[in-house]
Amino acid sequence: MSRFWKIALAIIAVLVIAAIVIVPRMHKGGDNAQDASAQANGEGQGKDQPPVPVTVVPVVAQDVPVYLSATGTVQARNQVTVNPQVGGQLMKLNFTEGQEVKQGDVIAEIDPRTIQSQYDQALAKLKQDQALSATAKNNLERSQNLVSKGGQQYVSKQDLDNLKNTLDQANATVVADQASIRAAQVQLGFTKVIAPITGLAGIRGVDVGNIVTTTTSIVTLTEVHPIYVSFTLPEKNLDLVRTGMAEDPATPLVVDALDRIDAHVVTSGHLEVINNTIDTTTGTFRLRGLFDNQKTELWPGQFVNARLKVRTVKGGLVIPAQAVQRGPDGDYVYLVQGDNTVKMQAVESAAEVGDSHVMITKGLKLNDKVVTEGQFRLKPGSKVQPLAPGQVPAAPTAEELQKAKAKNGRQGGGRRGG
To answer: Could you tell me where this protein is found in the cell (predicted)?
Structure first.
């Protein structure tokens, strides 16, 4: 055999071996691609695919309060720094730090002896000038009596005028003395420092025995019953708040103060006032709620979450919040259809209802059934086994177990054959 034929036969042998090895692999790869395509198009779930157990809840209608929330700051209704109005040695403090002081209570006493002596001097001066006034009056009356006797002029007109002026001066001095006495009385009263408001006493600013002046701070009193909560809202909510106030002017809007840690309601009050301007730098307006705070739940300077109830939606559609999923095109839910398959239904939520539900404004109707648990196993068209909240799916029957075993065997055999 020539060399040419030997080379040709070798090439043919190589081609035959390649055909035997590559062609089956290409055929298998095509089958795998078709299977993947079918699975991607939702064709992988045949009639024998068992339904997915999921928790299903119907859409219900209820009255839903609409809230506006913001971070609020607790502020004292009144706060007064108490300074003495006269100077002297501080003799006594009649309050306990941190305790409530009633309006009109004597909270401090200043040594009154210096001012007492001034008051006594003013009293003595008044008596002295009253005596001079009485003498001037008697002199004038005697002179007037001499003039009227027998029609003869015993006292000149100039002397009479001088006597009248002397009496007027004496009377004016008496009036001035009386004013000095009242001033001394006021100053003497200032030696007892009176609480101007009812409030909690802070930490004292001076100790007993020190010399105090009118610039010395004795203590700060803070009124906490009632108390304010101040907060701000975006200007877009102004009409909503004003409309809520106008619906029933006799009933103020309710404001809840919520703890910032676990969001429970600390106490409730009412909206007292809306500020008369909008802050142009932040685009917000300020509001202030008033709280009785009888149990001192709120403390000045504390931060809380203020929740303002502006209206109530009658018959709002409500579902559990966990039913709402987030997608690239917005919120959606898995809606259970009549044949127990599911579809993705776009929805719009308007407000939170309590801690676990939301109100839906678009996409659902009353009594629609939505999936609340088990969504991660679903895709559009999936067959489901609807379960009530807390319900556990029934154990599979022997027939179902046999079918599943046979199916798994076929799948395993196919993989081994490949």
So the answer is: Cell inner membrane
Backbone angles phi, psi at 326, to 5 degrees: -105, 125
Residue type, 201: A
DSSP type of residue 324: -
128 and 213: one domain?
yes
The verdict on whether omega for the bond into residue 393 sits within 30 degrees of 0, i.e. cis, is no
| Residue 357 amino acid letter | H
User: Do 233 and 284 contact (CB within 8 A), yes or no?
Assistant: yes
- The residue assigned the tokens 């002026």 is 165
Dihedral over Cα of 33, 38, 44, 46: its sign: negative
Decide: helix, strand or coil at residue 59: coil
DSSP H or E run through 326: strand 325-327
Give the CATH number for residue 277.
Answer: 2.40.30.170
**How much of the chain exceeds pLDDT 70, in percent?**
81
Residue 340, C-beta contacts closer than 8 angstroms, at least 6 positions apart? 51, 383, 384, 385, 386
C-alpha R_g of the chain: 47
Query: Which of residues 265, 289, 312 is at a domain's end?
Result: 312
pTM: 0.64
- Structure confidence at residue 38 (pLDDT): 44
What total of structural domains would you count in the chain? 3
Same domain for 214 and 108: yes
What local confidence, expressed as pLDDT, does residue 39 receive? 45
pLDDT in tens, 372-391: 998 888 999 999 999 988 88
Largest distance between two CA atoms of the chain: 194
Residue 253 has pLDDT above 70, yes or no: yes
Do 210 and 92 share a structural domain? yes
CB-based contact 331:324 (threshold 8 Å): yes
9 is a domain residue:
no
Domain containing residue 398 = 49-66+316-417
pLDDT at residue 318 above 90?
yes
